[in-house]
Amino acid sequence: MRHFIYFSANAATSGKALSGDLMKAGRMDIAIHSIIQGLFLSHDFRKNTVFHLIFYGMPDPPKHIEMQIKDETQISKKNVAKIIQKILYKYKEGERKEILPGCFVEKKSFLNIVGDLIKKGSSVFILDKKGKDIRKIKFKDNPVFIVGDHNGLPKKELKRLKKIATSVSIGNKMYFASQTIAVVNNELDYQDI
Ligand SMILES: C[S@@+](CC[C@H](N)C(=O)[O-])C[C@H]1O[C@@H](n2cnc3c(N)ncnc32)[C@H](O)[C@@H]1O
What we know:
- By secondary structure, this protein is of the alpha/beta class.
- The chain has helices at 28-39, 80-89, 110-119, 155-161, 177-190; strands at residues 2-8, 40-41, 44-45, 49-55, 63-67, 97-100, 103-106, 124-133, 144-148, 166-169.
- Strands 6-7-5-4-1-9-8-10 form an 8-stranded mixed beta sheet. Strands 2-3 form a two-stranded antiparallel ribbon.
- The structure holds S-adenosylmethionine.
- S-adenosylmethionine (SAM) binds next to strand 8, strand 9 and helix 5.
């Protein structure tokens, strides 16, 4: 299984906060583009991928939304925003709740999510322009890739993550988060992971 973790310090953490302009809800538009590049193919889905959204915006941070597309998951490129909103609306304090098949929401911190994936045996990679060239890395099963929003990753967490993860670069340009995810998925396709 591939994992992507998309971190946003400002993305809205309630369904109500998502009911207006997506650009104003902590750039939810970037999260949506990233989900599409993470989980969708033309006329198909990447069912071997789990997409984690970690939102630290107002009013109720942090929120961890986990999405994996199952045969029964009703999702299309056109309704991703509505699905995120529904997932956030249905959050219940103190629970990890499955809102749609394969889609869960809970309150959990960024570092705990990464720590749990490491405990399950995953290697973790931070997507970073200054990291090691992705074409020189041979990935193993269950890799985890961490990507930031338009503001990147928070300094404090990044310092701790760098002790347990490898920084990986897809090139010397600064790409959109969603473009980075598309390139990583393509590299993993070539490596048959
Ligand atoms: C628009 S960029 C963030 C820009 C932000 N100002 C910064 O300095 O991090 C969004 C995310 O895409 C990823 N990214 C962008 N360009 C990359 C590259 N060349 N290699 C690897 N990851 C990249 C990083 O994870 C980054 O946090």
